[in-house]
Structures are given as C-alpha cells and as structure tokens.
Design goal:
- The chain is built from 8 helices and 4 strands, in the order H-H-H-E-H-H-E-E-H-H-H-E.
- It has a domain of 166 residues.
- By secondary structure, the chain is mainly α.
- The strands form 2 sheets. A two-stranded antiparallel sheet has the order 1-4. Strands 2-3 form a two-stranded antiparallel sheet.
C-alpha cells in the first residue's frame, strides 16, 4: 500500500486490491495514473520547474512518495480541459497559470536572488504566503484570491484523482460496475478498512495555530516580516457566484 508521504489512517488498505472488480476501461483510466508522467506539452521546462515546486508546497509534498500532480495539470491545460469557467478579472486558465508562475518567480528573484524553482523550501513557503497575505487585494497585479483559487483547484483535483491519495483517505475508488450495498453511516463493505482512529487528534484551533506558527518560523528563517491577517472572510479561494465567466 502506498500513500503520499507514507501518511494514512486506514492501515492495510490498498484500493488497487479492487482492480479486478472494475471493468477494463476503468482499469485503464485509473492505472495510467500510476505510470511514468508524460512529457510537458503546455508548460515550458522553466515553467514546469516552477509549477512543480509550487504544487508540492501547496500540497505539503516535501518527501517521497509524492503524487506527480504537475503532469495532470499540464495535460489538462494542453487539451483545454478547464473547469468550464474563469474569473472575469483573470485571463483564461492557461494564460493565468503562465502569468502567475512568472510573477511568482520574479518576486522570488527580487527577494532572494534565486528563482522559485531553486529557492530553499522556507523561501518558497514565504513566497506562497505573499499570495495569502494579499487575499482581498491584488498580488503582482492579479487578484490574490483568484490566483489562490486557480492554483489550489488544479492541484487538489489532480492529487485526489490519484489512487495513492485514495489510500490515504480510505476511498473505494470507482464503484462501477460493482456498486455498494452497505450504505449508511459507519457501515463498511467487506473490502473496506476501519479508520485507525476516527477522532481528529488535533482540534481545528490547534491546527490553525500550528500552521501559523510554522509559517512564522519559516519566514523568520528567510528574514521576511511576520504574517499579516488576510483581508477577507474566506481564505479558501472558493469561487464567488458573481464574477465568473463561462
């Protein structure tokens, strides 16, 4: 069983054990995600190097094994497979990725005399934090909230499409054509595993403070000022109902 960063809460669970229950088309779709990543088709090599480091920082993928989400993002953009809309104050997704990566790299060079792809991990985290610090305003000429939404939407979609991420969260994968029969709260199929400890070991308050402390420590390592409180009620980057263009 493989999980990203070897983290997981479902001991002994491996979704790949369910491959024989999937039809051939489903098997092909899922198992391709475990193969070698395809060469970049949308991003240039320098852009890809920046994007790879960015999405790894966003997803906390600091060690192996890691899900190669860049290949999925690159493929989507090359094929024009977007979410079907974009913010009115942002370019279309492909150009928005190029513009935001260039801005991130330029800002990193200004502050640390190193490009984002080769900067240290604390320096990279400090650069990511600059977007969060401007939520509700503009970051490098772009609306910070919408940049954050762009990055996290694509990164999370690619990450949770991968079987290793399914192992981490105990997801059963495609239900076709097998289906489910034990529907209901705390009811499991015979092949499912119980969560090691269903209680959240860390309260949300503690998580928030730990994350804030970690960012402050990382910024201190780079000589950057402390984190300011984001301006805006919601820092998730969720798209607003207005301002989106289909």
């Amino acid at each position: 069983m493989t999980t990203p960063q070897s983290a997981g809460r479902f001991d002994g669970y491996d979704v790949l054990g369910q491959v024989p229950t999937w039809d051939l088309v489903t098997q092909g779709v899922v198992l391709r995600r475990l193969g070698p990543p395809a060469p970049l088709r949308f991003f240039t090599e320098p852009e890809g190097a920046i994007a790879r480091q960015l999405v790894d920082r966003l997803l906390g993928q600091d060690d192996e094994p890691r899900v190669d989400v860049l290949a999925d993002i690159d493929s989507r953009l090359a094929l024009g497979v977007t979410d079907g809309w974009h913010y009115a104050d942002m370019p279309h997704d492909g150009q928005a990725w190029r513009d935001s990566l260039a801005a991130l790299d330029d800002l990193c060079r200004q502050r640390f005399a190193a490009g984002f792809a080769t900067a240290t991990r604390p320096q990279q985290m400090a650069m990511v934090q600059t977007v969060q610090d401007q939520i509700g305003g503009r970051w490098c000429g772009l609306p910070a909230r919408h940049v954050w939404s762009l990055w996290t939407r694509y990164a999370c979609a690619a990450f949770y499409a991968h079987p290793w991420a399914w192992n981490e969260i105990g997801f059963g994968g495609p239900a076709y054509p097998r289906g489910y029969k034990n529907i209901g709260f705390d009811r499991r199929e015979a092949w499912e595993k119980p969560e090691r400890d269903p209680r959240d070991p860390v309260t949300w308050g503690q998580k928030t403070e730990q994350a804030r402390t970690r960012h402050l420590e990382q910024l201190a390592d780079t000589g950057q000022p402390g984190i300011s409180q984001p301006d805006g009620a919601d820092s998730t980057g969720a798209p607003a109902q207005n301002g989106a263009v289909r």
